[in-house]
Amino acid sequence: MLAVLVGAYGLRQARRVRETGVRVQALVKRHSGEVREESAPLHPLLQFVTDNDRVMEVVCPVPPTRRRPFKDGDNVLVSYDPADPRNVVVHGRERLGPERAFIAGGALVVLLSVTLLVVAIAGR
């Protein structure tokens, strides 16, 4: 049940920030001293300015892929939560698969538990 709740919370937060957050262009920056390994690409940094002129630099919530790499100096559209500007969503690259997997896995475990409970009760 906990997995279902974690997945649902993640989906809700991503949707809330995407829909009600402040949209800005963010600059993609590499980590200083980054050693590029093909097997484990690092999440780049995103730098943007908030509405109150604060410069924020946060780790990108999604990793680069071969089809859609984050190149140093690129601009991407992000939404950030005004209450916590470190909470960002990169438009067009939302990775909602892990949250959905948590929900599906948790629901499967709950369904299996209920089935086993019904079988155990019926066997008495």
User: Based on DSSP secondary structure assignment, what is the total number of beta strands?
Assistant: 5
Radius of gyration: 20 Å
Uncertain regions spanning at least 5 consecutive residues:
none
Secondary-structure content class = alpha+beta
Overall, the morphology is elongated
Oligomeric state, counting identical vs distinct chains: single chain
Please describe what this structure looks like.
There is one protein chain. With 124 residues, the chain is α+β, with helices and mostly antiparallel strands. It contains 2 helices and 5 strands, in the order H-E-E-E-E-E-H. It has helices at residues 2-20, 97-122, and strands at 22-29, 45-49, 55-59, 75-81, 84-90. A 5-stranded antiparallel beta sheet has the order 3-2-1-4-5. A hairpin with a 5-residue loop joins strand 2 (45-49) and strand 3 (55-59). The protein is elongated. The chain starts with a helix and ends with a helix.
What would you say about this model in short?
The protein is α+β, with helices and mostly antiparallel strands. The protein contains 2 helices and 5 strands.
